[in-house]
């Protein structure tokens, strides 16, 4: 009669070809059972405790190398089942089993519970062959994730050192399973083996690698950053429940995926640089270096520098057109020291290109925390900020050392700065000797002599004695404010005067504004367009305005009195135009020819920068005919 053990092992070999029977021991076998939970198993990796009395929380706060982290695993290292069938099996003894795992990820208590279950099944089935039932029991427990979700912790608790091994194993197994399949490319629509395809990490859409490489390489080369996204037209249009969303979420591909597709590292780096530059330029909070030859952005935790290893690149900005929030292992540690430094120096900015430290308010070199500064562009101030700055400039005096604004409500003018403990004068800002601070007010000849108790009731009290007022920085600020107010008042008065002229003389046109160079305008002037009637004086305001509009070169009023008499005598002219001068005796054509010839001569001299050598006395006694009349 055939041994029942041989019959059962033969049946198991037919069902599980991977069953290995020991050639030296025919009733001993091993079988690897893959662990693929139906629902991804939640594993929590905890920092390693240094002593039995130390808790996980203590290890995390004592500078442990790892922090607590939750990871969902879809593939886990297999269970190895060791079978040993005794001679009394199956009638008088249960089979002997032992379970082991790679990387020791399954707790020993769980393994011991599974091993004990084989005897329970043997009793329940009435002392018969139960190997297949036991293997099926273990597989069903693996599909349920060994019921860790029903434990007190609600997950599998493992040391942090095992995280990298288990995550790498899960990725490798998923890739092996994917490579064995066949998929239709979403771009070229041809069936391809999984080894020639790539599955997007976020959405799971599958495309062949050649199509992805061609598209993304062209998009990055052309600078189309927003085009580096999943190429499925419906990607991002559905929510988690499969319902269509109002606005499609446009999520860009992470550099790690581009490298996994086979795209060159130089191309991926260009993509990361353009993506970061785009976000810096679109962020209104970004400040740039004040050096004109640099203009680099200031360092920011929101946009960290691009690392040398692109696989560790982290995008901290969370938006619809950016990456998802970084994983816990990618998030930078927010130490207490760095947060404190940011709080203490919120105005400090450091250029990431030239390493210049400057103030993000006034864009000057870094001047410390307590220095009073103003924005480089006052138009950037809101109404509240502008009112605050105006109040500080009008009602405070800066410390002579740290420039901290100081306001006095009552008392003498000896001030003691609470920031730097400097003694100074409230009126002029002069540094005072802490050993004898009142010497400044008692020395004859100084600007603040016997002025210790001026403004005893503060800035709103009595006026300074003899109208001397403040000196030093506060005096300069007051003068600048008065100058600005006077300039604004003058501009308003000028605008009002122009408006009054337009109301009183509506028919008089505005004088033309000729921006044409004088040499070009003179060359284009039409001398023959002058008529005799233009020599007649205008009869009304309309005619005067028309002549001003026509004349491109308005003439100044002619000289009168003794100066003009001397000039006429030297030129041999006895009177006005046409009294014996050449202009009065010649015809109009000769006069026009002389005008044109003299104009061309003057232009020729001007081209050679020799116009200073031209003298109007060379025209003789008829130079008045060469004056361009009002048109």
From TrEMBL:
Residues 316-338, 533-631 are annotated as: Disordered. Residues 589-598 have a biased composition (Basic and acidic residues). Gene3D superfamilies: 1.20.120.1750, Ubiquitin Conjugating Enzyme, Zinc/RING finger domain, C3HC4 (zinc finger). It catalyses: [E2 ubiquitin-conjugating enzyme]-S-ubiquitinyl-L-cysteine + [acceptor protein]-L-lysine = [E2 ubiquitin-conjugating enzyme]-L-cysteine + [acceptor protein]-N(6)-ubiquitinyl-L-lysine. Residues 181-452, 185-230 form the RING-type domain. Residues 7-145 form the RWD domain. Transmembrane segments: none annotated. Residues 476-503 form a coiled coil. This is RBR-type E3 ubiquitin transferase. It comes from Zasmidium cellare ATCC 36951.
